[in-house]
């Protein structure tokens, strides 16, 4: 079986002007822009995607967005579409991030439409799932994650499913400094892979990258990334500075 390439994706959220983003990308290009052991994706806010894309041209770094609408065009004020992202050479798009779900009311059904639209336009979805603290404490973690995955990936064809990247992000660990233990994370990742096996067959599930997200930092990354079913990280805070983000890429590259 071909080992899954580790993936480290930086979610800059609503941070950095285009100029700040270009400066960060230049530092990343200079340090990890030639390596190809780890797939590295940066996801600037919409205003900085195009300039970041130009700054990473010729390097191995890839470009992602943090959200998109599921329609291709039309009267959707404030939104951007998959073809628009493709036109500025984005290859990835984060979908269903917990901040989108909780602060902007995104439902599983909307996330599903976005996943299907991304795949139709050859954009790789980084599809986020995860439980809240109350859900974990009531023992509902696996059920919640199962529902989000079944609904979010409904209608995805078997031959497209390997292009999906799943990000398991316990909501209580995002931006809080509270990281899931390696056991907690690996348990959910293994459960997700088992579910993907049921939905899409074993060979497909073995190809899908499942990222961990939630206060991943250089100090805790090596242990998390060494887990059998943890194929990389979706990184918020630690992606905003070249030094910590590069350390995470280096940590992923060190796992054999
Ligand atoms: C995220 O927003 O996807 C995330 C994981 O954030 P942080 O690393 O800051 O917890």
Question: What does this entry look like structurally?
Answer:
Helix 1 (18-32) runs parallel beside helix 12 (242-254) and helix 7 (141-152) packs parallel to helix 9 (182-200). The protein is 45% helix and 14% strand. It is of the alpha/beta class. An 8-stranded parallel β-barrel has the order 1-2-3-4-5-6-7-8, surrounded by 5 helices. It has helices at 18-32, 46-55, 82-87, 98-103, 108-120, 133-137, 141-152, 158-161, 182-200, 202-207, 221-225, 242-254, and strands at 7-11, 39-43, 62-65, 92-95, 124-129, 165-168, 209-213, 232-235. The mean pLDDT is 97. Bound molecules: phosphoenolpyruvate.
Highlighted features:
TIM Barrel; 256 residues; 45% helix; alpha/beta
What's the arrangement of secondary structure elements?
Layout: E1 7-11, H1 18-32, E2 39-43, H2 46-55, E3 62-65, H3 82-87, E4 92-95, H4 98-103, H5 108-120, E5 124-129, H6 133-137, H7 141-152, H8 158-161, E6 165-168, H9 182-200, H10 202-207, E7 209-213, H11 221-225, E8 232-235, H12 242-254
Parallel strand pairs: 1-2, 1-8, 2-3, 3-4, 4-5, 5-6, 6-7, 7-8
Helix pairs in contact: 1-2, 1-12, 7-9
The chain binds phosphoenolpyruvate.
